[in-house]
Amino acid sequence: MGLRIHFVADPHGWCCMGLIVFVWLYNFVLIPKIVLFPHYEEGHIPGILIIIFYGIAIFCLVALVRASITDPGRLPENPKIPHGEREFWELCNKCNLMRPKRSHHCSRCGHCVRRMDHHCPWINNCVGEDNHWLFLQLCFYTELLTCYALMFSFCHYYYFLPLKKHNLDLFVVRHELAIMRLAAFMGITMFVGITGLFYTQLIGIITDAIKKVKGQLTEWEKILCI
pTM of the prediction? Predict the structure, then answer.
């Protein structure tokens, strides 16, 4: 099934998403310029590490765009309710539309979303049934990119051999320490935040799976008792 495009007109969400894009661009441009390319030119690292960095960064940006513009599971105004599932539907007291259970109304988006997890301002979209897997992809690639950038920042000062060529005419070289400290601060902040979010998402998925298994076992017990 193709993914439906969905946009949310929320200035607060646009600002949050713009901040994420700024952090991505900051690392996408400056980490290779200060760390990767100079150490590659002096033979300290192989070129494949640069390719891997750019590959992860592009995957991360694509995941951000897809999670942001994909319909999370918006319910239509006149949904077709299967005859055998009417008892599992309820009336939303905010938009006065019928919705299946485990759906929630998002005040920012202004509509109900199937199996809504939460509204994430960092992607300016709800996380629901149809884009939850894209949100998990974004968390995974962001975690990977952050760890990769932090690892090279650490190696640049404490593991790699000192660079022999320094072009002091470049702004990034003159202010390297300040730039790398800011990159490290943003990286650590992103790593801690995404790790906590990723952990809660995985716990929710595991808990939901256990509930489904218990429900199926209960149904089988009733059948066997009959």
Answer: 0.81
What's the CA gap between 27 and 179, in Å, rounded? 10
Token look-up 């990286």 returns 187
CA distance 132 to 200: 13
Question: And the tokens for 168?
Answer: 């002091």
Residues identified as active-site: 120
What is each CA distance from 42 to 47, 50, 148, in whole angstroms? 11, 14, 20
Distances (CA, A) of 53 to 35, 60, 63, 145: 12, 11, 15, 7
What pLDDT digit, counting tens, does each position of 151-181 carry? 888 888 888 777 776 665 566 666 777 888 8
In the chain, how long is the greatest CA-to-CA distance?
A: 84
Give the residue-averaged pLDDT of 193-198: 84
For 105-118, the pLDDT digits (tens) are: 888 888 888 888 88
Show me where the domains of the chain are located: 11-73+121-155+171-225, 75-113
Instruction: Please tell me the distance from the alpha carbon of residue 157 to that of residue 169, in angstroms, as a whole number.
Output: 21
